[in-house]
Every structure is written in structure tokens, then in C-alpha cells.
Amino acid sequence: MKIVAVIQARMTSTRLPGKVMLPVLGQPLLSRMIERARKSVMADEIVVATSDQKEDDPIERLCKETNVECFRGHLTDLLDRHYKAGLIYGADAVVKIPSDCPLIDPAIIDKVLKCFSDGNFDYVSNLHPATYPDGNDVEIMSIEALEKAWRNAQKNYEREHTTPYFWENPHLFELGNVVWETGLNYSTTMRWTIDYEEDYRFVKRVFEELYPVKPDFGLNDILDLLERKPEIKK
């Protein structure tokens, strides 16, 4: 089974335009995101999916510089973008990862992918319900199930956010969910995504603290850091 992880990215974020190109330790944030996704041992290929709009040309150039595949498609129909990227790269299963989660733990990516691979699922995520700190979002779906959603989803938000058609129609799909094995739930109390300037400052500080001593830092390293230096918390 070929698993293709698709990182959706764009330059025209309304709340923090150009955030994927903001620098973190001398590299664009998207490069750091790609670097962490590449540490997944179960994903066979990483693809950045951006729009076909001129504003997103810098993302394609960055992909070439970092030697990662780039797919360009519809600006707002992310369901279409994920499905067509999956087809072009020969995916049996497509992983959806947002580009605003640069602290995502590769081990969590692999937990969700392993659950999908070991079971008989059409779709598995760690979001329904979510338990990990926000910013570790992983969703994986078979290409057949993705095609079913692509053919039948009609509502704008179903197209824009790719996966609502799955979890709003549980009678049509075999759905799975991965919860944090600790029993903890930090999904609403810890937010590690980048939507605003203060989010960027937080992520940048975490990288500056952890990356120089442990480039493959994970979830527990971040939690330990926040325990030792609570002033970093937003």
C-alpha cells in the first residue's frame, strides 16, 4: 500500500498572510514542516499541495529547492486538490496534514497511519474526538473513499475542508479514531497551530529551544520544555 502524505499550503492566509514562509532558525516554516513530516516512517511520499494561483508560486519554488513533490490545484476546493494529488502520485491512501502545524510529532503521524494500516478502515484520524495538543492533526483515507467523497460532497465547506463528508456520513464509511494513550486531553488547552503572530512567536521559540540539541524533538520534549519554562506558553 502506497501512503502519500499531502501537506496543503497557501500564501494567502487571511489571518497571517505568507505564514508558511516565515523564518524559523533560518528556514521557511514550511521547510520545517516538511522536515518533520519526512520523519514519518510509514508515509511513502510527501507532497505539498498548493493552489494554481500566481500568489502561490513561491511555494512551488520552495518545493523544488527542498526536493519535495508539489501539486497545484483548485484554490478553495481542497477535496479536489487532495483527490487529484492522490491520483497523480499513485496513492492507495492519502494523508491530510495542514501546513500550519509545524510542531507535529512524526510519531503521532505514524500512530494514525498504523491504525489505518492494521484495520479495515476507510478513514482514520486523531480528531473525532481530539485529545492531543491542537497542532497534531492527522487524517488518512483510502483513495477509494476519497473518490466517493469527491464525487458526492456538494456543500462548500465539505469541498473546502476535504473531510467533513466522511465524519458527517458515518453510515457510508468505516471510520476510526486514535486517542492519546495517556488518557489526557490537551486538545482545547494547548494550541500549537499558527494562525496569528503570537502563534508564530511561540513556535519559533520552541524550535530555538529544542532543535539545536534535538532536531527530532517530539510531543513529550515540548511538554517538558513548557513545564521547565512556563513563560513560553501563550
TrEMBL record:
Where does the secretion signal sit in this chain? Answer: none
Keywords (A to Z) from UniProt: Nucleotidyltransferase, Transferase
Q: Cite the Pfam families for this sequence.
A: CTP_transf_3
Q: GO CC terms for this protein?
A: cytosol
Q: Which CDD domains match?
A: GT2_SpsF
The UniProt GO MF terms for this protein read:
nucleotidyltransferase activity
* Protein name according to UniProt: Acylneuraminate cytidylyltransferase
